[in-house]
Amino acid sequence: MKTVLYILTLFFGVYAFPQNKSIFDQANTLYNEGNYAEAIDKYNTILESNQHSAELYFNLGNAYYKLNNVAPSIYYYEKALQLEPNDVDIKNNLAFAKNMTIDAIDVIPETGLSKLIKTITNMMSFDIWAKVSVVLVFFFVLLFLVYYFTYATLKKRLSFIGSMTALILLFISLAFAFHKYNLDKNDQPAIVFTQETKVKSEPNTRSEEAFRLHEGTKVQVLDTVKNWKKIKLTDGKTGWISENDIKLLK
Known about the structure:
The protein is α+β, with helices and mostly antiparallel strands. 60% of the residues lie in helices and 14% in strands. The protein is built from 8 helices and 7 strands. The chain has helices spanning 2-32, 36-48, 54-66, 70-83, 88-98, 112-121, 126-149, 153-186, and strands spanning 189-192, 196-200, 209-214, 218-225, 228-232, 238-242, 246-248. Helix 2 (36-48) runs antiparallel to helix 3, helix 3 (54-66) runs antiparallel to helix 4 (70-83) and helix 6 (112-121) packs across helix 8. The chain is extended, with a radius of gyration of 25 Å. The chain starts with a helix and ends with a strand.
């Protein structure tokens, strides 16, 4: 039964790819003709078939930007940037879209050791850090075996130093791998989708208003209580917002 399901999934996936390519081309044609709303409908049809790509998100962002829809344009540019974090065109268009937002929120820069550790951690993905750790395990075992079985003094000394170095680097890479995992796990960005929303001091409508946010503003989600999300801004402010007023990027 599982084999049949796998074959059917593979079949429909192969069938859907050229079909979505045709829809994507149609959407691009509509976009170039200035029919942005129709193009968005076509792009969303592809998304509904679980076909995702940076190009698709980028084009969706462009279409919403042309319609002056701030929140969706920023949302899809951010989605595209998650898949292609070094793409210059995505970064530039995202910057243009952010210029349409109302909220001007300062960014508290990280300094000192924490900034250095975070910078090094983000140099590679969790998978790459894990692969580095596996390679270091291999070198440690190999060098330790050389140390254990060799009788030449110089070779024994060098292999021991090499194995201990590999072991130290292994612990360091594991530490960065787990730190990267926690950073990715705790990174829950979202975009405000309502024109204006009141951020509360507590997760209920009776609590005091902490501040207000407007569409397109990016926030970090810290916690969830029923239908409320605790958010944090880049300037350090925190508060509670209705989950219906934001859209998570992950």
